[in-house]
Known about the structure:
By secondary structure, the protein is an alpha/beta fold. It is built from 14 helices and 11 strands.
Amino acid sequence: MELTDSVKNLLIETAKQLKGAARRRFMALTVKDLGFGGQSRANKELGWDRDTVRKGVRELETGITCVDNYKGRGRKKSEDNLPELLVDIQSIVDSQSQTDPTFKSNRLYTRLSGEEVRKQLIIQKNYTEEELPTTETIRRKLNHLGYYPQKVKKSQPQKKIPETDEIFERMEAINQEALLSPTTLEISMDGKAAVNIGPFSRKGKTRVPTYACDHDFNSNSKVIPYGIFLPQSDDLFLYFIESKVTSDCIVDILEQWWQEFGSMFGECKTLLIKPDNGPENHSRRTQFMNRIVEFVETYKINVRLAYYPPYHSKYNPVERTWAVLENHWNGTIFEDIQTALQWAETMTWKSNNPVVKLVNKTYQTGVKLTSKAMEKLETKLTRFINIEPENQYNLGKWFVDIFYNAP
Length: 407
């Protein structure tokens, strides 16, 4: 039997008009008329399912007709009974939805629950309680339409600011100047996260079975490690602070360190200080800059402040020492502050132990200068100005010089 295009269309359309056993019988009779290989031809040329055709052939040959259980197929979809349902759901949730903030998918996220959407369908679209599907079905329809509930996430910090590359170029130039100058001493300063004092686990390991509290309740005592690191000599000085780390606290630590160890650097005329760009010691922090100017005038030494760009504090040399300290003491339980100090003293950096001090002075937060006082202080600061035409950003807040002017 030759299957022309007109014959094919006739067979296909006829099969579509029939249902169940009648359709299978029609397919089986057609396949028999096609002769040998009829099932294969029907599948390739007519698009008929082979399993359906075989079932029809068996029914034709045995005379036993299978009864189709249409009710067993389940109910029709809600949108078949309510053609406008999906459109109405979209119109309700669109005003409450947002796209995937990562732009990695085409998903939409909505804050409305399935129960609320069902309620709004009744209020806004005049559906009745009886004709609408259940809340669970509405929830599945929301997911099917692409609306997914999403956990609220913290915003992620940017990884780079426009000035980052130029800041690193300037930092490299300053480093080279410091290496070639015998009168410049480079020091790196930064603080570490607060350490709870008490019977708390630090998620470390120890060969001796040790047990900590099952819950990390609020600690009555904390210490904040603050480090001064000399990259040229690999000397490390650790100060443990019981109070808040404020501008006054940072400069007091610098003064204490210089009073005790400054005599070791007799030729030093300039301190190249690399602090982190935190809120208590950036170059626009009025009290910090005021104390640095006082430091310069008191000890008759120049200070150059060089800040790393945001989100790049890991390049600050002192940051390398914190991982060593944490690995050294993370299996220890600090029952008291003295235990923490003793463990810090036994840490080794480049085969040397750090100098460890305790700062138990209480510092007041929120100390700042008035606008007029800061304007006067700015006259004593020399902020870096780009002179190269290819550099387009102002790096004045990242690099500041304070020179001692002898009276």
